[in-house]
Design brief:
Layout lengths: L5 H4 L6 E2 L2 H4 L7 E2 L3 H9 L13 E3 L2 E3 L7 H9 L3 H9 L5 H7 L3 H4 L12 H15 L14 E5 L3 H13 L2 E5 L8 H5 L7 H13 L3 E3 L10 H7 L2 E4 L19 E3 H15 L13 E5 L3 H13 L3 E6 L25 H10 L4 E3 L1 E8 L5 E13 L6 E5 L5 E4 L2 E4 L8 H7 L23 E3 L2 H4 L4 H20 L7
Parallel strand pairs: 5-6, 5-8, 6-7, 8-18, 9-17, 10-11, 10-17, 11-12
Antiparallel strand pairs: 1-2, 3-4, 13-14, 14-15, 14-16
Length: 496
């Protein structure tokens, strides 16, 4: 695909990010997309691989290499190169319901597996995905296409995150009557309130869900199934139910002083900021402000980085990010060859902004909280941290991070955000439907399937696989829809 010599003639180009000190003045997306001409050159760089790892989505050494959705990357790169933008859009939509989301928030597993990146720089696949879908909206290729025939079968989808939306979209295309229940006041789940606006502007989510509503999907917001809406009622009213409620049970930090005022879960902090931003442009003050505060973010993952970027936009006095694990190498290790996912240190947008504002990387590695310190009014005033080192657990034989004796130190803080990951399904929704959970508190289903122990109840996304990527949630939603469709009709023609 592409131009046979394109990878030798053109270098990699990616969207330019606004300078950190400029972009922190607002909560808007801050990348300038490539021009059509630049995108065509990136399409030209695609190498017509005999084995396109970019679309493989296979597991190598415990991590996925290539796109879990099996996006037809070489095909639409070639179509971009030749200027066939409508066809490129058609091929992109064959495998991905929401390229407008993945083009913004996916870590680009496809690019990490690109053959062009083996000895040089990968094709800018994500940039072309963005260009295809946004051009499609501008040109009017994207339009509501309600199904011509309805089956009369009714499906309830609980949760409007990427898995729930993908399942709903697929089942609606098949002609089933789909109703999506969302407990928040806006549709989108993780896409709406879990991911900050500067990574994914919310009008992008609303643009897509409006289209889905035009195609016949019913969205019910402020509908908390398991509390305000009875599970028994849904099981009577609908032929099938899909649980796609995410893994929203946050992992806590068990340390003395945890009850101090000024300690919040990252998910609550980020959601409150986004809601206030959408409701009033942050004028209602109904969010957890970091302005002028000494912030410690506990957790070194994507959510922790989002907290760093958000706190800086609030005007925090300082931001420190604690990471339990050692710093990853700056370059691939010999035991981490292409096309494996590269286990290298990544400095994300929030950390870049912290470096620009405070003059240093906010991350402190191999460190965790040993105690939260309170003042006489019960407010957080500092932390006692402790260094960690890798050791072998004598009972399990596994490597664990253990405290280094005598390594304790004090750190000033009046706001702590816990971004230590998620434990899985919230108990009340699992109990409401009576579904069995596995040892990781995810909804249990047979391997490779999405049916639960409860008749006519299915599951998908983080609620099924645990905390993961948006792209994986979309795939799970598509596969669950296929299984539901087959159970309703006796066969299915839905793709995965």
């Amino acid at each position: 695909m592409g131009k046979p010599t394109g990878f030798m003639e053109y270098g990699r180009q990616a969207a330019k990010a606004a300078p950190p000190k400029e972009r922190i003045g607002n909560f808007q997306e801050f990348h300038t997309p490539l021009s059509k001409e630049e995108q065509q050159k990136q399409g030209a760089r695609c190498m017509a691989c005999g084995v396109p790892f970019c679309q493989s989505g296979m597991e190598l050494m415990g991590m996925v290499s290539g796109c879990p959705l099996h996006n037809l990357v070489p095909e639409w790169n070639d179509l971009v190169y030749t200027g066939n933008w409508e066809q490129a859009y058609s091929r992109l939509m064959k495998t991905n319901n929401f390229p407008e989301f993945t083009a913004r928030v996916c870590p680009a597993l496809c690019e990490a597996a690109c053959t062009c990146g083996h000895y040089g720089d990968a094709v800018s696949v994500k940039e072309n995905e963005y260009g295809i879908i946004e051009n499609a909206y501008r040109q009017g290729f994207v339009k509501a296409r309600p199904p011509r025939v309805r089956t009369g079968k009714k499906v309830a989808v609980i949760g409007s995150g990427p898995a729930g939306l993908a399942a709903a979209d697929q089942l609606n295309k098949r002609g089933h009557l789909v109703t999506v229940y969302e407990r928040d006041d806006r549709v989108g789940g993780l896409l709406m309130y879990g991911i900050p606006n500067m990574k994914l502007e919310k009008q992008v989510v609303e643009r897509k869900t409006r289209l889905m509503a035009e195609e016949g999907i019913t969205f019910l917001t402020s509908a908390n199934v398991g509390k305000d809406v009875k599970a028994s009622q849904l099981l009577k009213e609908y032929d099938r139910v899909i649980l796609a409620c995410g893994a929203k049970n946050p992992r806590d930090i068990k340390a003395p002083g945890r009850d101090a005022k000024g300690i919040y879960f990252a998910v609550d902090f980020l959601a409150a900021t986004t809601k206030s931003l959408l409701d009033s442009g942050l004028k209602d003050n109904k969010y957890i402000s970091a302005k002028g505060r000494k912030v410690v973010v506990i957790g070194g993952g994507d959510t922790g980085n989002d907290c760093v970027g958000t706190c800086i936009r609030h005007g925090a006095a300082s931001v420190t990010q604690l990471e339990m694990m050692p710093k990853a190498p700056d370059r691939r290790a010999e035991d981490n060859p292409w096309p494996q996912w590269p286990r290298v240190c990544k400095t994300d947008y929030g950390q870049e902004e912290a470096i620009a504002i405070f003059g240093h990387d906010p991350r402190v590695y191999q460190t965790t909280v040993k105690e939260f310190l309170k003042d006489k009014n019960g407010k957080l005033c500092g932390l006692v941290t402790v260094k960690l080192e890798s050791k072998k657990d004598e009972k399990t034989g596994r490597a664990i991070m253990a405290e280094v004796p005598g390594s304790e130190s004090r750190m000033d803080a009046d706001l702590a955000l816990i971004a230590a990951g998620f434990l899985g399904t919230e108990k009340y929704i699992a109990d409401a439907f009576g579904v069995t959970l596995d040892g990781r508190t995810n909804v249990k289903a047979p391997k490779g399937r999405y049916s639960t122990n409860v008749k006519h109840v299915f599951t998908a996304g983080d609620m099924h696989r645990g905390q993961s990527l948006v792209v994986w949630a979309i795939r799970e939603g598509r596969e669950a829809a296929r299984e539901v469709d087959e159970s309703l009709m006796g066969y299915t023609n839905l793709g995965i």
